[in-house]
């Protein structure tokens, strides 16, 4: 979750100017060709979501007219159209601790303390004791559950902190040292029992079913710290949070799985891909086995392909389970900067992470906190919707910014069950619905109009009358539907405004063109991005050699063993020279006899659409890697954990 509304590590966009799709002189626009690739299809998309947490706690008790409108804006079909909700199970401070958490951040705990209990009393709670459990807790967040439950198809429960009595410091805002373990080791079982009891209570009371539970949030960070003033009460730390390092995570994850059999345990909900990877590396084998899904946040945007390949190697689904941001250093409801920043974040997350769900942190934020003089002097744009968190009247003002508009270009046209596919253009996201190309969402952050050509030659069927209809969001309006353009000779060209997000709705284009993709059996050379040298099968070993297009030892054929066109399909890779199969044994790369199959000889290939690939071994979860990042001719090839390094990426060249 955000920590003092930290800035995303993304490039800020500049204000939008421009109009709707319209004719303009050819030299007034830049040009880009977008070529979707149906031979590389991600897992079926589970959908779009949000954490309820603070926004639900703050607004669930508002007048009906206000809270109904807010729920419609977030989960309604004309609003953000979300279908995934994450319920925040609060920990709760001791009864004698004065209020100090941010508005909405004091999510109630689900316990009832004996009279006179103080923060010093930390051993009174007994799992399963009905006298010490509050089944009616958190009415505000639960109002949201009832309001949206017919629109939500996936529920996840998550915790930011254990209850105060299960923490080391005795406060839910973190330890006195931000890197000290905060979950008491003797209370791991009690904590998971607490979460399980809340989940089962919510399911029975509201007629919903949680598909997953995550017992931690951004755990291996230095964000969560409690500071005490001279009077002994907290003065610092405005939200629930708990440092939980990988060794304690390794105990917590299996314990959570045991406490809630039949419910997927997701983890670690880490703040960025690099710390996610550090958590995974530090987990025990039991923790890796018990985690049914991997969750990562993208507050740090570097190295997104690492979680992608870790998830593929572990054969586990991956969610981008939280992110938010301002994308402009002032509060502004009309500038396109925030909207373009959000659209770019979504585009990059979907392309580089390949998540099966994308979840916003808080679509609704506190207007009072975001206005000038709130969290910053100039104000900020966290949230797609802003409303005062101290509202008491039915005419409470509700404001949306351009993130609300540009996000709908994605959530209205990429649906649960769609499969995102590769594209050569880093600013575009393409989705298939069954065998049909459904939509392409394109972001133009530049100052010039753009002539976009959709190259649909990768598809085998373009029906007569096939059309592409633009739906444009820019400074002049949101989701403006333009005039359809006919597909001719496998292409459609459209002009989009400067500083815009455009969804191209496609009708009449389907299937994959025959003979395309890596699994066709046609020979391919794989050339290292770092070294410029190619994989070569020589004397039973794998090395890199100066590329020689005529060398049979450098040509490979791929056979899809588990599916067709899926980004998680497993391939066998055979040498065109010897028929030997690329495999692994004893932690090393091998060349196995022709016809060898099985996990050790199967590889999942990943790409960002740029023509380069990583090879993830199905048995080890490790990647094909030039040992020592060598550029030398004849350097050996080995296995290593995902690093997103150029020595692990390979350019595929048909031969």
What does the model show?
By secondary structure, this protein is α/β, with parallel strands linked by helices. Among the domains are: about 85-265, Glycosidases (TIM Barrel, Alpha-Beta Barrel); about 520-655, Trefoil (Acidic Fibroblast Growth Factor, subunit A) (Trefoil), CATH 2.80.10.50. About 20% of the residues lie in helices and about 30% in strands. The chain contains eleven helices and 36 strands. Strands 2, 16, 17, 18, 20, 21, 22 and 24 form an eight-stranded antiparallel beta sheet that branches. Strands 3-4-5-6-9-10-11-12 form an eight-stranded parallel barrel, surrounded by six helices. It has a four-stranded antiparallel beta sheet with strand order 25-36-33-32. A hairpin with a 4-residue loop joins strand 16 (about 420-425) and strand 17. Helix 1 crosses helix 3, helix 4 crosses helix 5 (about 245-260) and helix 9 (about 335-355) runs parallel beside helix 11. The longest helix is centred in the N-terminal third of the chain and has 19 residues, at about 190-205. The radius of gyration is 26 Å and the shape is globular. It starts with about 30 loop residues before the first strand and ends with a strand.
């Amino acid at each position: 979750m955000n920590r003092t509304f930290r800035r995303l590590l993304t490039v800020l966009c500049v204000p939008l100017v421009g109009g709707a799709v319209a004719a303009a002189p050819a030299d007034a626009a830049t040009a880009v060709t977008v070529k979707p690739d149906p031979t590389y299809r991600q897992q079926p998309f589970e959908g779009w979501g949000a954490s309820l947490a603070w926004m639900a706690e703050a607004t669930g008790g508002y007048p009906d007219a206000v809270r109904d409108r807010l729920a419609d804006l977030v989960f309604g079909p004309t609003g953000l159209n979300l279908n995934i909700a994450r319920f925040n199970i609060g920990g709760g401070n001791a009864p004698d601790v004065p209020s100090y958490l941010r508005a909405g951040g004091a999510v109630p705990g689900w316990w009832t303390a004996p009279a006179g209990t103080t923060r010093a009393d930390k051993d009174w709670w007994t799992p399963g004791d009905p006298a010490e459990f509050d089944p009616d807790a958190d009415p505000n967040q639960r109002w949201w559950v009832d309001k949206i439950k017919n629109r939500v198809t996936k529920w996840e429960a998550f915790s930011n902190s254990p209850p105060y009595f299960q923490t080391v410091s005795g406060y839910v805002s973190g330890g006195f040292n931000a890197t000290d373990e905060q979950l008491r080791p003797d209370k791991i079982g009690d904590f998971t029992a607490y979460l399980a009891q809340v989940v089962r209570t919510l399911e029975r009371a509201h007629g919903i079913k949680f598909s997953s539970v995550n017992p931690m949030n951004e755990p291996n960070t230095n964000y969560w710290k409690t500071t005490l003033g001279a009077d002994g009460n907290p003065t610092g730390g405005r939200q629930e949070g708990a440092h939980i390092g990988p060794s304690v995570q390794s105990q917590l994850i299996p314990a959570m799985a045991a406490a809630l059999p039949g419910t997927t345990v997701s983890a670690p909900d880490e703040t960025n891909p690099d710390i996610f990877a550090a958590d995974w590396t530090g987990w025990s084998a039991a923790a890796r086995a018990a985690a049914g899904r991997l969750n990562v946040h993208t507050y740090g945007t570097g190295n997104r392909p690492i979680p992608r390949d870790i998830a593929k190697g572990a054969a586990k689904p991956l969610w981008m389970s939280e992110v938010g941001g301002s994308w402009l250093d002032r509060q502004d409801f009309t500038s396109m900067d925030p909207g373009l920043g959000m659209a770019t974040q979504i585009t990059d997350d979907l392309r580089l992470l390949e998540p099966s769900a994308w979840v916003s942190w808080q679509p609704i934020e506190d207007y009072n906190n975001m206005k000038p003089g709130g969290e910053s002097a100039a104000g900020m744009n966290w949230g797609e919707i802003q409303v005062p968190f101290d509202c008491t009247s039915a005419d409470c003002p509700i404001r949306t910014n351009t993130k609300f508009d540009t996000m709908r270009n994605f959530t209205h046209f990429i649906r649960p069950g769609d499969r995102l596919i590769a594209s050569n253009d880093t600013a575009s996201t393409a989705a298939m619905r069954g065998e049909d190309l459904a939509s392409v969402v394109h972001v133009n952050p530049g100052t010039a109009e753009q002539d976009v050509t959709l190259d649909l030659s990768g598809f085998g069927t373009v029906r007569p009358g096939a059309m592409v209809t633009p739906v444009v969001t820019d400074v002049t309006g949101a989701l403006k539907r333009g005039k359809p353009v006919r597909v001719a000779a496998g292409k459609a060209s459209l002009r989009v405004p400067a500083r815009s997000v455009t969804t191209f709705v496609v009708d009449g284009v389907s299937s994959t063109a025959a003979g395309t993709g890596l699994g066709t059996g046609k020979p391919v050379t794989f050339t290292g991005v770092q070294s410029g040298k190619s994989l070569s099968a020589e004397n039973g070993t794998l090395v890199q050699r100066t590329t020689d297009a005529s060398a049979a030892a450098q040509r490979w054929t791929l056979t899809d063993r588990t599916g067709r066109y899926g980004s998680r399909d497993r391939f066998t890779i055979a040498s065109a020279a010897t028929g030997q199969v690329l495999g692994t044994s004893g932690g090393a790369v091998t060349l196995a006899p022709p016809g060898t199959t099985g996990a050790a000889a199967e590889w999942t290939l990943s790409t960002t659409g740029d023509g380069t690939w990583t090879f993830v071994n199905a048995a080890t979860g490790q990647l094909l890697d030039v040992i020592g990042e060598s550029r030398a001719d004849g350097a050996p090839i080995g296995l290593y954990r995902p690093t997103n390094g150029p020595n692990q990426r390979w350019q595929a060249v048909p031969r």
